[in-house]
């Protein structure tokens, strides 16, 4: 119960608007806190009813295509553009949860001392060096051409959510993944943390997994 009370208190603090153009009313803030409380009480984590921060404060996230499609499309900075592009080329055919999971890996890498320290650098690590690309689309010799605008906008919305504090609870800190239909040798060196959609996710063995 103490953990639950602390979580509710933390969510209540998050619900305070940050730099809002139109500050949320006390009623809106109270509703956000109550939604968060009910999500915790109902064990709704698998549905993804969690919080991320935007200019109106803490907002719920639902990992469904319908919910994502209902959100406004907001362009962002260079890091947003890199993440949206990576999700488009790496995961647009995945389930919505699978797309969020791939975003988790990229952000986990950007926060790890073992990898470059920005989203763009993580995605482009090894690009131009044979067999060293970390994300295959960056060195497949094909132009990065967006042909499905609707899918790109969906990836852009997910990128926006994740870069603004979206929940990372799908992959248990994974920094590696591969498609289920392949069996790379490197995977045997790591701990599998999750399978989401068509991908297996991994991180280094526990004693080596610290950032």
TrEMBL record:
Keywords: Hydrolase, Signal. InterPro entries: Cell_wall_hydrolase_SleB, SleB_dom1. The keyword Hydrolase applies. It comes from the Bacteria. The keyword Signal applies. One of its GO terms (molecular function) is hydrolase activity. Residues 93-202 form the Cell wall hydrolase SleB domain. Residues 1-20 form the signal peptide. This is Cell wall hydrolase. It comes from Cognatishimia coralii.
């Amino acid at each position: 119960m103490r953990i639950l009370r602390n979580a509710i208190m933390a969510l209540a603090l998050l619900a305070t608007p940050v730099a809002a153009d139109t500050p949320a009313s006390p009623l809106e803030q109270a509703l956000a806190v109550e939604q968060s409380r009910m999500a915790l009480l109902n064990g709704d984590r698998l549905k993804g009813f969690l919080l991320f921060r935007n200019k109106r404060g803490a907002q719920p996230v639902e990992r469904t295509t319908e919910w994502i499609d209902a959100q406004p499309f907001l362009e962002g900075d260079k890091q947003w553009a890199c993440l949206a592009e990576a999700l488009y080329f790496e995961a647009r055919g995945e389930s919505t949860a699978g797309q969020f999971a791939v975003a988790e890996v990229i952000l986990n890498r950007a926060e790890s001392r073992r990898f470059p320290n920005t989203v763009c650098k993580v995605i482009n690590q090894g690009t131009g060096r044979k067999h060293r690309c970390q994300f295959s689309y960056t060195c497949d010799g094909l132009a990065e051409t967006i042909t499905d605008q609707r899918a790109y906008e969906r990836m852009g919305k997910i990128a926006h959510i994740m870069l603004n504090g979206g929940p990372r609870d799908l992959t248990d800190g994974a920094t590696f993944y591969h498609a289920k239909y392949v069996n790379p040798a490197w995977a045997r060196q790591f701990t599998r943390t999750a399978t989401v959609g068509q991908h297996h996710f991994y991180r280094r063995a526990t004693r080596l997994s610290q950032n």
